[in-house]
Amino acid sequence: MLQRCWLLRRLSRTKRPRLASESKCTKYTKHTHGLLFGDRWADLRHRWRVNRARMPNRFALRREETLNRTALRILALGAAAASLLFVFALRAPSATAQTPADWKRLSAEKSLGSPSAPIRIDVFSDYECPACGHFYEGTLRPLIDDYVASGKVYLVHHDFPLPMHKYSREAARWANAAARIGHFEAVDRALYDNQGAWTENGTLDGSMEKFVQAALTPAEFKRVQRLMQGCISDSHDELKGCAVDAGIQHDIAAGQLIPVTQTPTFIVSAHGQSYPPAAGVISWPLMKQFLDQILSQK
User: Fold this and answer.
1) The domain containing residue 72 runs over which residues?
2) What is the pLDDT along the chain (298 residues), one digit of tens a residue?
3) In this structure, is residue 130 part of a structural domain?
4) Does 122 lie in the same domain as 267?
5) Is residue 110 part of a domain?
6) Structural domains in the chain (count)
């Protein structure tokens, strides 16, 4: 029966009238084919469904791996871009300072003591910040009068005016102008000593300028005034016509690298190593004890 049906199927492909027996043969062939090959086709269909179900997961894994690689590349590029931005911020050209030697000179102008002192303290401060005022009067002033004067500590001032303090940037400009003519310490002290007086009105009543003038001789004050041309403003932006703003901006960029999150922030360095940055006010007895411990480690 199977052979005859096979022959009839071959003949059915030719153009001839269909025989009545062929319909029976067709039913028989379908039944026989199902018995012979039904299990095999069912197994193949099952495998195909399983593989089809697995394909989206495989593609999802590949897609996830691709996204992870892309994210890592983006992070690497972002870190490189951030590093370049900081480098450009530190080396940005200006009319007053364009080389590392210029930045070193400007930093030295706002420093007290001997660069060869065994201990170096870098202080990031804001002239209008109340905590900075307390830190200066209670800790830095006795430090300057004792350890800086005796050659034990080299104190380096860095300006970090906070935008929340309206007149802090202008006060930093006056201090930097005085530093250019070699009288930073006098103006630095005058601004902190009279912080409560000039922070109320800033430049409105000229009180800040008045205290700077009182700390200098008439000739020195005239030189500072010339440097301050184009700088009298309570704006925290870098003024194009201000000769001292580049130095302030350089200090801000250096503080952001640490990063400085509040003022005052100071860093102590000694014996070729730097201690972690410390923020806030520390009393003079505690600071003195810490410095004495460092000096005893010779």
Assistant:
1) 51-90
2) 545 554 545 555 554 555 555 455 554 444 444 444 455 666 676 666 666 655 555 555 566 666 556 655 654 454 444 444 444 444 444 434 457 777 788 888 999 999 999 999 999 999 999 999 999 999 999 999 999 999 999 999 999 999 999 899 999 999 999 999 999 999 999 999 999 889 876 665 678 999 999 999 999 999 999 999 988 887 878 888 898 999 999 999 999 999 999 999 999 999 999 999 999 999 999 999 999 999 998 6
3) yes
4) yes
5) yes
6) 2
129 and 64 together in one domain: no
CATH code (residue 232): 3.40.30.10
pTM of the model: 0.66
Both structure tokens of 19: 């025989």
Residues 55 and 104 occupy one common structural domain = no
Classify residue 45: in a domain, yes or no.
no
Within-domain flag for 173: yes
